[in-house]
Amino acid sequence: MVGIYDRGKLGVAAADIDAASDGWLKALIKDGDVSSKPGRASVFAAPDGVKAKRIAVIGLGRAADFDAVQYRKAIGAAMAALLESKVRDIAIGLALEKVGGTPPYYLGRHTSEAIAASLYTFETLKTGAKQPRPRVRKITVAVNERGDANPLRLGAEHGVAIAEGAALTRDLGNLPANVCTPSYLAKTAKDLAKKHRNVQTRVLSEAEIKRLGMRTFLSVSSGTEEPPKLIVMQYRGAGKGAPIVLIGKGITFDAGGISLKPGPGMDEMKFDMCGAAAVMAALATAAALELPINVTAVVPSCENLPSGAATKPGDIIKSMSGQTVEILNTDAEGRLLLCDALTYARRFKPAAVIDVATLTGACVIALGHHRTAVMSEDDELACALIDAGIAAEDRGWRLPIAAEYAESLKSNFADFANVGGREGGAITAACFLGKFTKGMTWAHLDIAGTAWHAGPKKGASGRPVPMLVEFLLRRAGVLP
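Predicted structure:
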């Protein structure tokens, strides 16, 4: 894989190829057979003087704009061009470029993750011929300095583990709700405990959840025949240290309950458990990398459906914390799971708690599908998550939490309501959760806009696994 910039400027590896082939590549550029536009890639039989059998020429755009995002896009474009080939070994020359000053470690990460993302398919439930994919056995990345090799190799190894975690998240999200039920999520968590040493999984039944007093959680599952599950995974990589607790919303299908959602697009509500999938995958990735850190994942999981037994708007429920909630909208159900899970998390005496949820459509309106909303009253934790997202190219954006936003949650009949007005809906949802986090170091990630893609490329994205794992890598102190 070699790249060319605007106006026919050759990348470092492209210049080497051109010199070895007596100007073959410049002739292709002159004849208009290759494009320098980002995301364009062409594959040619290699000319005399070059040992490789094929050359993938990738457009890199303007040299000044070639950063980690464009690097990943270039590798993805090259892999797409190779989809139907029988390529087994790939040598990548793109890391020889400046890549916006990206360190070798992160170039290794981005290389592994970009290749894995380009090779990902979900054809588990299809019966026809499978889409062909190159069976790559070896990838070589050229570096400028000998000292760059070890950090790049470490980054590539970490990238493989992160890509596997993202793929697990995508697989779970892409499964239909008649397959990926709360019981299926629970089985997956148990299977992960069998796969990774130092991971223990416990699954609490509906009766156990009821004994804990998690009534707001159970108010969501009351309209479905599928039994709810509280999944607790623990990875101990650092002895008796306080864990990072990750809480993931696990609604395996959200019809809205009595506050029924409109029909168009409701099939996408199978993705409402992507927060659960992400925290399970992040913990599994920490275990795969044997990070010296303790991580606990708490996943409240159920369906949200309407029936004669379903919770009704206006019902008042007592949470595990003892606080009462007036449920004005049964489609604001994720916060009802998470609030009890946040209370449950206190028993682990956590160093920090991060909840991850496809929580509000208001977040999509605010940030679109590009950035995850990060909300926390703890500046250090919020900045750590934002910085982790920047490094991992899985970016977030901080939204405020303040008392004035919580005013709209006041209720005449209970301690507070589960929704406020339409204004600032993503923030008021976080304010609701904040009522259950007093004394904890806590952050809320709203991934409603980033957890999946709609339209022709419909499917789970695997986010925010890279952000979460980067955060854990930094907390563990293992980055070069």
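Summary: The first helix runs from residue 12 to 20.
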